[in-house]
Amino acid sequence: MADETFYARGKLYDLMFPGGGPAVDLAPGGQFVFDVFNPSVRMLAEADGHRRTRESLSFTDPDRGPVRVDVAETYDALAQVTRGTWHLSTDSEEDVVVAPLEMRSIFPQELPLLISLGGLRLVERLGDWSRGPFSGEAALQLCVCESA
To answer: What are the tens digits of pLDDT across the range 14-31?
Structure first.
């Protein structure tokens, strides 16, 4: 990826504003690289409001040690929006952080259209930041775009 690459996370709606967004701000030959989560039908079906530990989201904080992430969420299929609460806990402190979540699911078949409506061309779609291939099982849709 070129030095002119502009990185952003989760601001796909910015692509939809006519006359604005990253396509206008890119230098010649520049790229806009972003990721969105790849919706899992299984995970959306489990969004029943009950609090569950999400092992794949757990991480290690340099000051607090292992951090467990519990998620309680529901899914609105009509709006394609997941609403819920994330609970971050350590071994010594429950619910260190409690944060609301509202996230629109963008399915793989609709993402290229949204990108093109934003004045961009999808150059490459990857499954992670290590340049792994994109597949239905990938956790992310990592998109590399250029001005159309």
So the answer is: 544 445 566 667 788 889
CA atoms lying within 13 Å on the CB side of residue 45: 3
Asked if 72 and 51 count as a contact pair (C-beta separation under 8 A), the reply is yes
**How many CB atoms are located within 10 Å of the residue 43 CB?**
17
Residue the block writes with tokens 């998109």: 143
Which CATH code for domain 6-39+106-147? 3.40.50.150
Residue spans per domain, the chain? 6-39+106-147, 41-104
Output the CA–CA distances (angstroms, integers) from residue 89 to 51, 97, 107, 135, in the order listed: 13, 7, 30, 31
Both tokens of 86, joined, read 């994330």
State both tokens at 75.
Answer: 């899914």
pLDDT in tens, 110-124: 999 988 888 889 999
**Coil, strand or helix: which one is 56?**
helix
Asked if residues 24 and 51 have their Cβ atoms less than 8 Å apart, the reply is no
CA distance 50 to 70: 10
Bridge partner list, 48: 74
Q: What is the pTM of this model?
A: 0.71
